[in-house]
Amino acid sequence: MSPFLPGEFRRILVIKWSALGDIVIATALFEDIARAFPAAEIHLNTLPAYAGLFEEDTRFARVWTVNVRSRANRLGSSLAWLKQARNGHYDLVIDLQRSDHSRLLLTLWWLSGRAPTVRIGNRGGFPYTHQPAIRRSGSHALPMMQSVLHTLGIDTPTTQPVLRVSPAREQAVTAMRQTHGLADGSYVVLLPGAASAHPLKRWGVAHYAALARLLHQSSVEKIVLIGGPDEVEDCAAIARSGDFVLNLNGTLALNDIPALCAGAAAIIGNDTGTAHFASAAGRPLLVLCGPTDPRRVKPLGQQTVAVQTQLPCSNCYSKTCRNPEHHACMKRITPEWLAHRAHELMRGELTPGQTWREGQRSF
Fold first, then answer.
1. 308-341 pLDDT, tens per residue?
2. Which end of the chain is less crowded, N or C, counting CB atoms within 10 A of the terminal residue's CB?
3. 267 and 285 in contact (C-beta within 8 Å)?
4. Is residue 207 within 8 Å of 241, Cβ to Cβ?
């Protein structure tokens, strides 16, 4: 039984600033919060760059933003944030950010007055009144965030992202699929990008091009490429593999990705925010992890599997490779090996916990 009655909270503030993948994961928690407090007015505080993701989200009565990451005006942005928070007259705040920054702002809020009596934090310590049971830094974001809600007695049955888009956008993506002949099960989606600041997370253009050819030769009708501004050139190069490759880079909004992926036989990509959006489709998803720990970064979903080459330097989280065999964590995953894994994924045979002689392991 919940230690609090849902009706006790009239207005709730949920804080989730970043990063993109973690925000998508948090949408599962947004669903659980909305379900737990159906009569409450729920507000979301995020960064300006991500506000557009929630324009059609009926779970929130209001989405407000302040660029709290501004280095040029840190004091001004902090004061602006405090003003917005104090004027919200909130009864409950749920901080899913897990950072010293949000914790500091909440402390200043408490010191200045009008802070909610109940303050749930994604890490321990003052000023939170309720704190997570899971605090291990190497844990996946979802169970850590779930344990925060459990302290208030909120059930967390949602296990994959829940993104809300307008019916008009869903219809537009359906029309796009029809235009390009993307029938259910006839195509595989590739996500070849990653932020330009993290080049070691990329498997590489040549590898994805080779994989596209192998999948097409093995009966996959079409290969669809999805990417953002950082991978325009990469997607264009992969698309030159043949007319069976459809390059949709730059034609989709982030919230369109689940609808596009809904009919895919499989989705394959790097550890990137785009993969988290794709996971909302609930389709078989294979994520390649090199310098990042799949136990921490793997997208949600029962059909999601991550693979990683097991090396002494695995999970280095570095932007510069120090291995004498440069980028070995990704280079040792060959297109031929991955093509086999892709078909196992489509058949439901690829599951976490497998180890191969080539040094790869699934998570």
1. 999 999 999 999 999 999 999 999 999 999 999 9
2. N
3. yes
4. no
Regarding whether 191 and 313 lie in a shared domain, the answer is yes
Pair 208, 352 in one domain: yes
Separation CA 43–CA 83 (nearest Å): 15
Q: Which domain holds residue 184?
A: 167-362
Reply yes or no: is the peptide bond before residue 127 cis, omega within 30 of 0: yes
Total tally of structural domains belonging to the chain: 2
CATH classification at residue 48: 3.40.50.2000
Could you write out the DSSP letters of every residue in 142-178?
Answer: HHHHHHHHHTTT------S------HHHHHHHHHHHH
Q: Starting at the earlier edge strand, list the strands of the sheet with 285-289.
A: 245-247, 222-225, 187-191, 266-270, 285-289, 304-309, 360-362
pTM of this prediction? 0.92
Give the contacts of 228 (CB within 8 A, at least 6 positions apart): 193, 249, 250, 274
Helix (H) or strand (E) holding 294: helix 294-297
Query: Which pair of structure tokens corresponds to residue 162?
Result: 């829940």
